[in-house]
Amino acid sequence: MPTIRELYEDAIKYEESTLAHYILILLQEGRVSTNDDDSILDKMPINKEKLDQMIQNNYLGFSKIKIYSIKYAVNTFAFVYAESPADAKLYFFSRTGKQPLNCHELSLDYMMAVGNRFLSFRDWRKEQSNFPCIVGVYKKDY
Fold first, then answer.
1. Is 61 part of a structural domain of the chain?
2. Torsion angle, CA of 101/104/106/111, rounded to 10 degrees?
3. Total count of domains within the chain
4. Are 70 and 135 members of one domain?
5. pLDDT digit string (tens) for 64-77?
6. Is the dihedral of CA 53, 23, 111, 101 positive or negative?
7. Residue 70 neighbours by CB distance under 10 Å
8. Which residues, in sequence order, are bridge partners of residue 120?
9. Residue 111: its pLDDT value, please?
C-alpha cells in the first residue's frame, strides 16, 4: 500500500487539489505522518470549512489553466489553454474570428506529438508563458 507521502506527492504532481489540501491539513494538524499507510485516510474526518477555504485560496498554488479542445470546422480542432471553457471559446473567437462549434476540457495527461517529441498537455503547458493561448490545430483525416 502507498504511504501518505507517496499519495501526497502524486496529488501534487497530478494537481488533485482537494486530496492534496486534505492531506496537508492532516499533516499540519499532526493527525497523520508521511510514513503512514494511505488507508488511514478512510478513518479521518476533516473540517470541511477549513478544506474549502484552503482550496478557494489555492494555498498550494495549483495552476487554474486547463486545456480545451475547440471544434471549429468539420473534423478540425484547436487546442487552447485557458481557465474556463468560456475563456477558451472567447479567446479562440477573438484570435480567429471563427465561432467554436463545441468546447471540451481534455486531460492534462493526454500525450501529443509536438514537433519531433511527445509531450503531455501538462508538460506542454509549462512551455507557455501567456494564457489563454492557442497551441495547436488538429485535423482528423477519415
1. no
2. -10
3. 2
4. yes
5. 999 999 999 999 99
6. negative
7. 26
8. 111
9. 94
Yes or no: say if 78 and 67 are a contact pair by the CB < 8 Å rule.
Answer: no
Domain containing 85 equals 66-139
Q: What percent of the chain has pLDDT over 70?
A: 100
Find the helix or strand (DSSP H, E) in which 81 lies.
strand 76-82
**8 A C-beta contact, residue 32 and residue 62:** no
Distance in angstroms (rounded) separating the CA atoms of residues 128 and 142 = 31
The three state secondary structure string of 6-70 is HHHHHHHHCCCHHHHHHHHHHHHCCCCCCCCEHHHHHHCCCCHHHHHHHHHCCCCCCCCCEEEEE
Which amino acid is present at 127?
E
104, part of any domain: yes
Cβ atoms of residues 14 and 50 within 8 Å: no
Q: How confident is the model at residue 59 (pLDDT cuts 50, 70, 90)?
A: very high
